[in-house]
């Protein structure tokens, strides 16, 4: 039986399991990437493993998220990451070098290899034929230490691209069309693999725009074949030696199939407040725009910004519009500066920001109250822009540029002939903002400013676990409730003691105090506890406060994995009515905890205060049981001698 591109790469990297969807597999990781927001914790965890040098083929630490320096915290984090990277064999991409996914695509991504990144848009590198997956910082730390990455074998969805995009229609419209059809839940547990005659009409950056926003479908990753177009991109980056052809076998078998006729697509927009709320741009034409933001890891490539420059050439941004542009990388900005396109942007009235995530992560450029913002980004959740009342529309660079000129949401097809932009035969290569690892690591001192604090580590599970119910929560508690993340708290991601003062405070302002006074304890939750994001801090901070277990009616999958990674026991009520009998400050007790976790699928926990016993379901794999017994993934990895 033939294999698809994704199946071929997985098979080559398979350490455990088979290519059977729904079953757990483990794969070897060739490359890792981190960004600063998740990176500090990942490197603290890597250091805790006691490994001298990374064991991957390549690891890169990027600074692109928290580049505003209104206090010393971000600068402290950057210096810590720079020095820890230098010491342990990791390349360091300095602030200003660009957004991790754009730079990785340009300078490091290799077809056929695996990439694990502590950022959800890591699948961007699927545009070059890499199997690229976003994961928690701890998973990335383990991969840097040579550990395999565990995941559920996804279903492979064949996305058959027919035809060719019409003028003014772009790669962004392809992925918006998929989001329109499948919604933000449509990709869960799946890899989207693009095939068909339409593939060769798309450049690598265009492919990367599509794989980038596969994350919004909830997909494990997305991937394009590595073909002649890939070769030409790598050659233009001076990296033809990294090329390897990877095509699907003609008789490859897929689990599902979707067809998109590229020639039938029109410019699309995702309306507030979800990336799948997609309609044709033409239907939005009289909406007045306050801000246009062009950039992000979705649409900030050289070709994207050249197109914008040509549309803006000789024009002026509408009086009531603020146009901000963040180039994806120093390479892109440098080339725009050299060929004069930057002058077109500036003279049209664009405000040029640094090469970083910027407005996409709420670091500046919040729109006005009730403002309408058009963005080429990948997310438009309520409040993400920094202005709770703002309405954000996600569009292509073409639609964004056209609307910046007219001041209203504008279908770019109304502008007449589309300016043509070719992919360059050679990119401007200057890696002087990438610091290589030290040749003599012993001579490097890791510098920890006051914002770098040790992180909590789980302890091996004792025979008897006792503690009070610290809080009883309702249904659908999000990771934002558990560990709020906002512009004020973001700089403290490597400072768990500081963050712990905010743990669960949106639900119970006294939770941190109660946890401290009682030496930790248990959390009781309702349905879908921990929904929202992969935020590891939503497990790390409770661990720091001494939380030993969470009893809930059900868990969100990723948060449950994060609890286990940190040695906190997730337990599901076998009888949901038992939830009603528990009250705050009840004392709970698990006898024979080690044996129960090791052997049983149902754990008995006693409510000492009420004289009741509850049957709690443990949905744990063999490996997850070991993690809890050892007090988390780090301890297990150390015990298994990965170092
Ligand atoms: Fe995340 Fe936005 Fe940065 Fe992309 S540009 S990595 S989506 S913050």
Please write out the topology.
Elements: H1 5-13, E1 14-16, E2 24-27, E3 31-34, H2 36-48, E4 58-62, H3 72-88, E5 91-93, H4 100-107, E6 114-117, E7 131-134, H5 137-144, E8 149-152, E9 155-162, H6 171-182, E10 190-195, H7 204-212, E11 221-223, H8 228-236, E12 256-261, E13 268-270, E14 278-280, E15 291-294, H9 302-312, E16 322-325, H10 330-339, H11 341-348, E17 351-352, E18 372-375, E19 391-394, H12 397-406, E20 434-435, E21 465-472, H13 479-482, H14 496-499, H15 511-517, E22 521-524, H16 537-544, E23 547-552, H17 557-565, E24 569-573, E25 587-590, H18 593-599, E26 602-607, E27 612-617, H19 622-630, H20 633-639
Parallel strand pairs: 3-4, 3-6, 4-5, 6-7, 9-10, 9-12, 10-11, 15-16, 15-18, 16-17, 18-19, 21-22, 22-23, 23-24
Antiparallel strand pairs: 1-2, 2-8, 5-20, 13-14, 21-25, 24-27, 25-26, 26-27
Helix pairs in contact: 2-3, 2-5, 6-7, 9-11, 9-12, 19-20
The structure holds iron/sulfur cluster.
